[in-house]
Amino acid sequence: MYDVLLTSEERKIRDEVREFVKGVDPEIIRKMEREEIKFPKEFVKEAAERNLLGLRFPKEYGGCGATWVAELSAIEEVGVLGFTLACLYSLASIIGEPIYYFGSKELKEKYLKPMLKGEIYGAEGITEPSGGSDVFGAMKTTAKKEGSHYIINGQKRFVVGAEGADFFFIYARTKTDVTRPQEGVSAFIVDRNLEGVKVATVYGLLGSHGGGTGRIVFKDVKVPEENLVGQENGGYEIFNRMMVPERLTSAAGAIGVAVAALEIAVKYSDSRKAFGRKIREFQGVSFKIADSIMKIDAARSLVYTAARMADAGENRYRLRRVVAEAKAFATEAAWEVVNHSIQILGGIGYTTVYPVERLLRDCRLGIIWTGTNEIMRNIIQHEIYREMLNPEYWKKRRNIELDTTEFYMEEEKVYE
To answer: Which of 215, 267, 317, 416 holds its CA 20 to 30 A away from the CA of 207?
Structure first.
């Protein structure tokens, strides 16, 4: 139905990923759920061998030179398998973003190109034990320049791929005498095999099993100065750029999860009978199906709008807002749709006979990570006030005979 939103080339890429997804052995998901697989390298490698990783990046680095829309349509397809695989599939795009746009040619050759070939695997370290959403204010990880190296000390937690990744993209404080906490932060690539890098904890999670999520400790780690990404103290700009794929891929993956849950609910409600009738004939069931597809279609429209804006080079403040809208709306829509699916299946939906209980546990994370949805709402309100309170905004609007704002302010003066 949403083919109308895609160009022929974007549909071709989407279909290639769909075929790849259809061929994924379900046993991989079962083993991940049982934590028998900590990081499914084979899955990522096969995607790379099909030239389906990091689709947006130029062909010279192993990408396809595709659009944002093509990549998000691909991630939606992977999301049908579950949130964890969608996340692991997305890591090449998320980590590749700062390397491609801010990294040196040497870093692109050493990390981006082999990552897109499935030869090495990357993970990102942002959150620290002392802070969650307050990324920069609570940052205690430091990087001190000594000769031709930076000495890094600190911790990062909730790192997907803590077990399994070959290198970590992290942020560390390189300057303490700053006016604002986001100043004085730099970005680095840290190889796992460096002395002083240790996986201290592998978390047991409610859902999203099999991603090797853990806490990493850096103790006097000597990182070559050439592994600085971008400029020293320029990490905040890199972070903001990185959050676009971080949040859009979460949104697209959530849509895939919702689609999977809806498909199960539709098939089940068309075969299950109660009181001599298919349960789909009861409005208590069929209206949940209607609500679910409305949520999915609305989420997809918002996500693809944000993707088109990113492709078009939209104003960064407006893009920041719409990306936040897409992430918050899509992840919450997925949560609602999966809940509807469980309700439609009834008791059997609460068992492991169907995967909807796994989808529920997995997609709950989407509302928390890559910036909680409360943070998304804070971004949204901040940017809409910035836009609508700018005099330039009103110059583009129609003439209004009565400025109601001034009217009500005048009314208030009566009581002064």
So the answer is: 267
